[in-house]
Amino acid sequence: MAKSKEISTEVVVQPNLNDFMRNVYGDENRYEQILLNFISNALKFTSDKGKVTINLSGSILTDKKDPKVLKTRKLLQKSG
Fold first, then answer.
1. CA–CA separation, 35 vs 54, rounded Å?
2. 8 close to 42: Cβ distance less than 8 angstroms
């Protein structure tokens, strides 16, 4: 789809993502499905000759009640 609409794509993986992902537990297939859905929608709704940038980053945020709480930030930036 990106090629036919002449959409440029960029994937940015922040250096801290690998360390963060070691602490994420869940269904790998579902995470992949969510990511692919974001990408598909970005391409689908970006105008011809636009640009889609995917920025993946992770951070561990502590909660005073439960220090093992993990929160994920995955940013999908779309411009076009």
1. 10
2. no
DSSP 32-73: HHHHHHHHHHHHHTSPTT-EEEEEE--B----SS-TT--B--
Predicted TM-score (pTM) of this structure? 0.61
Q: Residue 46 is encoded by which pair of tokens?
A: 């970006």
Per-residue pLDDT tens digits for 24-42? 777 888 888 988 998 999 9
* Closest CA relative to residue 61, chosen from 53, 52, 70: 70
Residue whose pair of structure tokens reads 């994920």 in the numeric block: 72
